[in-house]
């Protein structure tokens, strides 16, 4: 119908629409637009453009990168005046159809603009419209003269002879040569003698793996059952106490995947992606490993992305966002520490990388293994209804035993900097035996608040409904919610008095007390104030490996993943902090924490003890952590959730709204919800709110929310979709932001 309409194209030239009867490319662009956009192929373009190919298109007066999601007949496009794309950017699609399907599902499930989902599958340079990173890295290969050289020709220059011998086997990347102790100077010698040439060299194509440990019977069963489902979709939950050898199960399952010529994707919480963990994979597999985490430079990310996509990388190890990396031959997905909250993306597209990983396995038709010492209640329920298969590792290999757990009721006890006499005694005994102590206190800073003894004034944040934390080094009052900092006042702003003091206990203060109580013993503090560099945790682990008896004091940073073999005494200073957390997952988190914290300690030959200080020794969660296995504890938690209709027995979606003015957000949500009610879509669903969030003001914004909850996932999701559509069509005050959070990990 618009066949002869003159069009403005990229360079402003007037042209006629070509291809009047041909196809229209339907694509997504990286912009907060909830629909797809239609373009004609570039002027003069004749070939088909497969889905997953990038285009350069104009959007308003910007040039942006789009991804083709479909080719449709001209008659199906609703757009009257179609613009041609500026250019087709790829000769091969960058995103395969299965991954496109996963991304489409992600956008729809999490109620997010599709274009912002599609870019998650692109490397940094690809998002900018540049070509993918070249495969291979700069390296060295023998040229014709070099290959023709007699073996003993370089015997006067042994270093060069060694390099020659290596290059006779195969070309080598410079990074590889450096690792083998060959210097650039030696390489230059061969180049200047015209025996070798510089070249981009890809990674080894033959994948090899080293000797596996001989598995325990429990490991063997898990490995056999996982490997029996390789090549088809199946979700396995590997529940194994800390140190029970879950990683060995992963390694042997991955070996089977590689044997089939397929790639494995291994997901870890950010904190576990240490060189130690990587080394475990590298020493088992002689095969290219791509690593993806937030600490990488864009250039490295680009290269590893391409290794994953091309199929060159045998294994891809990464954090949350790696769940979207294209992989040519994906055959197995591992999600380690699947219960970990860091798998949830908390801004932009809010997704659970664990749940997306399961979906990806389903779409791909491969198996996925969710491993944890304390699987999430969601995964536990899925094993109980038979949707997921369940494997348990209940013992540590060899003679290793689990630590003894002891509760100390601190009500009425005299505490010294938060430490009770039973704990202090156990610490002394441990240090005297030459062993190490790990103390856990989940509050950084010197004191969680500062107050005036005279008038009761409390230092609060100007931007948040929160108290400021007192820090001593460097001195200041800090808000842990918005990052605001203030000088410590000399006089009380309330009464001008001088009796200001810290209230409560933080890691800084406990560190000072420990240095006083255990003079001469090294004390390490591990919280986000001291662990500021990427290598900090690694440095700490290296230091304590050789230091002998010492005390390690830290926040939840210490509860995850790392193993401290010389630690035989673990103290939890304040177990109660999580207990009365208003969020419904508070108790689950406490139980996971208490279970995990004990698992950090001990080695085969040295049993450990865990001492838990509490004011609520009779609380069911605290009690069952003592004696019961994780599954029994889950029964308790699950029956509570069932009675309240909460996940995993019910489903939640939360629409949150941030506004500059107090009532604006609430008004907005109220308007949206009112329209929902009139549509009578709310059967079987409870709508809680709109209400202010538990912390009603944060970083200067007023936060409000409305919760949708119901027993049927589909109906909750359907209603959430309606609510998003309504919100999208509302007039919005400037500065107001809203978003939908599906399966939120926090409901408050
Ligand atoms: P998890 O991942 O469950 O915490 P790991 O895989 O790290 O446990 O195993 C803990 C320790 O036990 C490691 O040092 C590992 O080498 C060792 N281990 C695991 N499986 C075996 C086995 N079958 N035989 C001997 N040692 C094992
Ligand atoms: Zn005062
Ligand atoms: Zn603040």
Characterise this structure.
By secondary structure, the chain is α/β, with parallel strands linked by helices. It has 5 domains: 5-127, 3-Layer(aba) Sandwich (GIY-YIG endonuclease), CATH 3.40.1440; 137-201; 208-393, P-loop containing nucleotide triphosphate hydrolases (Rossmann fold); 404-447 and 504-638, 3-Layer(aba) Sandwich (Rossmann fold); 651-742, Alpha-Beta Plaits (2-Layer Sandwich). 30% of the residues lie in helices and 24% in strands. α16 (536-547) links the parallel β27 (522-526) and β28 (550-554). 42% of the residues are buried. Residues 1-18 have low confidence and may be disordered. It binds adenosine-5'-diphosphate (ADP) and zinc ion (2 copies). Residues 452, 454-455, 457, 492, 494-495, 497 line the site of one zinc ion.
List keywords for this structure.
748 residues, GIY-YIG endonuclease, Rossmann fold, seven-stranded parallel β-sheet, six-stranded parallel β-sheet, 34 strands, binds adenosine-5'-diphosphate, binds zinc ion
Summarize the structure.
With 748 residues, the protein is of the alpha/beta class. Helix content is 30%, strand content 24%.
Strand order of the largest sheet: 15-16-13-17-18-12-19
Give the rounded overall mean pLDDT.
87
What small molecules does this complex bind? Answer: adenosine-5'-diphosphate, zinc ion
CATH architecture annotation of the largest domain? 3-Layer(aba) Sandwich
What do we call the CATH topology of the largest domain?
A: Rossmann fold
How many helices in DSSP terms? 21
Shape: globular
CATH class of the largest domain: Alpha Beta
CATH homologous superfamily assignment of the largest domain? P-loop containing nucleotide triphosphate hydrolases
Query: What is the terminal-to-terminal distance?
Result: 53 Å
* Count of the separate structural domains: 5
Biggest sheet descriptor: 7 strands, parallel
Rg, Å, rounded: 30 Å
Structural class: alpha/beta
Strand content: 15-25%
Sequence stretches where pLDDT stays below 50 over 5 or more residues = 1-18
The total count of strands amounts to 34
Helix content: 25-40%
């Amino acid at each position: 119908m618009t066949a002869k309409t003159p069009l403005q194209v990229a360079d402003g030239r007037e042209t006629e629409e070509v291809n009047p009867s041909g196809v229209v490319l339907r694509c997504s662009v990286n912009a907060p637009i909830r629909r797809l956009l239609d373009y004609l192929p570039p002027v003069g373009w004749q070939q088909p453009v497969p889905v997953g190919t990038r285009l350069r298109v104009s959007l308003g007066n910007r040039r942006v990168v789009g991804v083709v999601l479909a080719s449709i007949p001209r008659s199906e496009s609703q757009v009257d005046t179609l613009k041609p794309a500026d250019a087709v950017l790829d000769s091969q699609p960058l995103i395969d159809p299965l991954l496109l399907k996963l991304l489409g599902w992600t956008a729809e499930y999490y109620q997010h603009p599709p274009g912002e989902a599609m870019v998650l599958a692109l490397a940094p340079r690809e998002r900018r419209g540049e070509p993918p990173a070249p495969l291979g890295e700069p390296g060295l290969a023998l040229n014709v003269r070099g290959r023709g050289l007699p073996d003993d020709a370089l015997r006067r220059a042994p270093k060069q002879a060694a390099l020659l011998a290596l290059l006779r086997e195969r070309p080598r990347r410079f990074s590889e040569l450096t690792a083998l102790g060959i210097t650039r100077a030696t390489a230059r010698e061969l180049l200047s003698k015209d025996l070798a040439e510089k070249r981009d060299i890809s990674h080894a194509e033959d994948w090899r793996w080293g000797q596996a440990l001989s598995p325990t019977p429990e490991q063997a069963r898990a490995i056999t059952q996982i490997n029996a489902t390789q090549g088809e979709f199946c979700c396995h939950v590997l529940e194994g106490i800390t140190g029970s050898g879950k990683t060995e199960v992963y390694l042997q399952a991955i070996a089977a995947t590689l044997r089939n010529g397929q790639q494995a994707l291994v997901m870890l919480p950010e904190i576990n992606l240490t060189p130690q963990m990587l080394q475990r994979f590298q020493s088992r597999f002689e095969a290219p490993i791509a690593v993806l985490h937030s600490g990488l430079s864009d250039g490295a990310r680009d290269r590893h992305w391409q290794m994953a996509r091309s199929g060159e990388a045998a294994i891809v190890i990464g954090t949350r966002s790696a769940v979207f990396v294209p992989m040519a031959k994906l055959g197995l997905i591992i999600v380690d520490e699947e219960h970990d909250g860091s798998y949830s993306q908390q801004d932009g597209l809010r997704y659970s990388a664990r749940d997306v990983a399961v979906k990806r396995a389903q779409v791909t038709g491969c198996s996925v293994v969710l491993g944890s010492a304390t699987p999430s209640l969601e995964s536990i329920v899925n094993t109980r209804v038979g949707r997921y298969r369940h494997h348990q590792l209940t013992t540590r290999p060899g003679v290793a035993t689990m630590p003894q757990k002891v509760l100390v009721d601190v009500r009425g006890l005299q505490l010294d900097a938060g430490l009770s006499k039973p704990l202090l005694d156990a610490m002394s005994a441990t240090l005297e035996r030459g062993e190490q102590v790990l103390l856990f206190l989940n509050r950084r800073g010197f004191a969680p608040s500062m107050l005036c003894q005279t008038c009761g004034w409390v230092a609060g944040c100007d931007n948040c409904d929160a108290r400021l934390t007192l820090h001593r080094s460097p001195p200041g009052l800090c808000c842990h919610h918005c990052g605001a900092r203030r000088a410590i006042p000399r006089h009380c702003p309330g009464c001008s008095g001088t009796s200001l003091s810290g209230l409560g206990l933080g890691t800084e203060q406990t560190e000072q007390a420990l240095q006083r109580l255990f003079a001469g013993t090294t004390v390490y503090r591990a919280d986000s104030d001291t662990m500021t560099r990427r290598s900090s945790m690694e440095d700490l682990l290296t230091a304590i490996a050789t230091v002998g008896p010492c005390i390690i004091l830290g926040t939840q940073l210490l509860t995850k993943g790392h193993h401290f073999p010389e630690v035989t005494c673990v103290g939890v200073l304040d177990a109660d902090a999580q207990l009365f957390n208003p969020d419904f997952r508070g108790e689950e988190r406490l139980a996971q924490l208490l279970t995990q914290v004990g698992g950090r300690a001990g080695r085969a030959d040295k049993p450990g003890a865990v001492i838990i200080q509490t004011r609520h020794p009779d609380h069911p969660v605290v009690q069952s952590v003592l004696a019961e296995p994780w599954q029994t504890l889950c029964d308790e938690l699950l029956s509570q959730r069932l009675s309240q209709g909460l996940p995993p027995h019910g489903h939640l979606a939360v629409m949150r709204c941030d506004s500059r003015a107090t009532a604006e957000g609430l008004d907005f949500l109220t308007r949206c919800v009112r329209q929902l009610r009139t549509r009578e879509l709310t059967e079987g669903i409870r709508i809680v709110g709109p209400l202010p969030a538990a912390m009603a003001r944060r970083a200067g914004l007023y936060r409000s929310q409305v919760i949708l909850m119901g027993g049927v996932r589909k109906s909750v999701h359907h209603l959430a979709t309606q609510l998003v559509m309504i919100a999208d069509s509302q007039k919005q005050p400037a500065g107001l932001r809203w978003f939908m959070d599906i399966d939120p990990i926090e409901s408050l």
